[in-house]
Amino acid sequence: xxxxxxxxxxxxxxxxxxxxxxxxxxxxxxxxxxxxxxxxxxxxxxxxxxxxxxxxxxxxxxxxxxxxxxxxxxxxxxxxxxxxxxxxxxxxxxxxxxxxxxxxxxxxxxxxxxxxxxxxxxxxxxxxxxxxxxxxxxxxxxxxxxxxxxxxxxxxxxxxxxxxxxxxxxxxxxxxxxxxxxxxxxxxxxxxxxxxxxxxxxxxxxxxxxxxxxxxxxxxxxxxxxxxxxxxxxxxxxxxxxxxxxxxxxxxxxxxxxxxxxxxxxxxxxxxxxxxxxxxxxxxxxxxxxxxxxxxxxxxxxxxxxxxxxxxxxxxxxxxxxxxxxxxxxxxxxxxxxxxxxxxxxxxxxxxxxxxxxxxxxxxxxxxxxxxxxxxxxxxxxxxxxxxxxxxxxxxxxxxxxxxxxxxxxxxxxxxxxxxxxxxxxxxxxxxxxxxxxxxxxxxxxxxxxxxxxxxxxxxxxxxxxxxxxxxxxxxxxxxxxxxxxxxxxxxxxxxxxxxxxxxxxxxxxxxxxxxxxxxxxxxxxxxxxxxxxxxxxxxxxxxxx
Amino acid sequence: xxxxxxxxxxxxxxxxxxxxxxxxxxxxxxxxxxxxxxxxxxxxxxxxxxxxxxxxxxxxxxxxxxxxxxxxxxxxxxxxxxxxxxxxxxxxxxxxxxxxxxxxxxxxxxxxxxxxxxxxxxxxxxxxxxxxxxxxxxxxxxxxxxxxxxxxxxxxxxxxxx
Lengths: 546, 162
Description:
The structure holds two protein chains of two kinds. By secondary structure, chain A is an all-alpha fold. Chain A has 17 helices and two strands. A two-stranded parallel ribbon of chain A has the order 1-2. Chain B has one helix and ten strands. Helix content of chain B is 20%, strand content 38%. Chain B is elongated and about 70 Å long. By secondary structure, chain B is an alpha+beta fold. Chains A and B meet through helix 7, helix 11 and helix 13 of A and helix 1, strand 7, strand 9 and strand 10 of B.
């Protein structure tokens, strides 16, 4: 694991993914600032040459941040981690580049209508709002690209396994493969929605669609996609952070168990996004709420394992007491600080997620600003701030140059944390006071005076997040252009106190668990999907009303 | 906590509460959902989304009294309004909303009384709520439905019993 297995061309491939991810993030933070200021009472600066409306902005913000930034980062990061985990090069660099170009071509195809206000349908693109066909085909190509990443990791696993028949799969490679396998299985819902419904409909091959069926297929993929974002962050928390803080991973088998549980439990619970939908039986909603509580179990395992690993580092650095060791962690390292702050925010985000999924409680929060507050603590901080922390060592490594400014990076991650505390607290509270999400709220006909005192905080938090985002991007830009110091070594993978061999061999299998995952989807979704497909009526015409 | 056996004990000491916590929360959820009789939207029938205004009960949108202090609101959502968009009921009423959309997906959201349901073309939504506080409740469409989404609202006015 000490050898640098990433060849220069492989590094270029990872770098290409990161470049696209960061261009998207720039678009995401700019639109985010303007939307935050709209909530604070400023007029949205819509222009027919740029962003044409508040809703155009929200669509751009969602697609760029949660679809492009995350997906391109992950498809660059996990192969990099896999190669280091196996300590062999990945198979077929050619396949890697084909994958990248498929994803980029898809992205550009989708971006043209999106930028031109022909796909102002949010990143959830619920029909019968009807975007330009290029938007749907483009996003589908991006998904196909992610499948090719899975294929490349699986082929590499086969090569490695042939050379090492009796050894447990190295944990970082195992986690990466499980993440991609989970995503690939779960993406069938989205693939079916695109291929059988939205693409033929947007091309005019069929005249109508069934909005509820499309929505249900979307959410079959739409919840596991959050684990597709989150698990790569977990890879860093399990495998790199313990080493970066000078400690060891607490338990390898427990980490494997939690990833396998995410594999089987991520998908069969998307109905908790549809608790308020008509046409789906409340019994199945309750069943999937139950499974959502079940997926809290591997999250708690992760919490314990990661905190115990951090504790080993804190104590090795002379930390004492029940809590005080936490302060002894290397907070001066921006990569570590960013990820520790991401973890702290995720404590709130994870619990908030349970509240949202709590069936009857969902009636209070569904589609309110509370949800927006929630996912900015999860994908917007737990995931994004972790990815930023990773880039603080990964980008210098790829560029062969040291990070331009550590102190700016430290300021950046604290600014993100504080900005997000303000931003998301205000939105949570506004949601509880009945403020809907995805709405140009300053102009809402039902505007409530009790929202007025909190809305400026959305703008203040949003501004801090914007400044933090710009500092982050600037630091990386200066790193790859003007930094002259050589890059420090890449963090090694953490060694486990309880190694893989201390756990049972079935924790190192993938195929049987894939079967279990598929069966779980069939049980949780089969009856509902069979009824929706059997009774489907493709009668809703499309609307372009933005 | 360096040797394997101790690690195993720590693992166990965490795994068991990790199971107990979600189970406990689930129990609380079940008690509140069924004990308090809170229902989330469920199956309430379909309607041809292109013929909503010709299909009962949506051919006559409005408020109908169905019993003492019981009302049914037959509601149609469309870009960018609710029909009806102003509902008057006496205090203490139980109001059942029977609603659908005749174009894109809308939301029917009345904070404070747990009315939170999607209006999906082709599907009929049915939810009930108690209005036991005098005054005005606002109705918002809380699903993005196009460029004037923020103008889609209404109100429920709860009046003294006459």
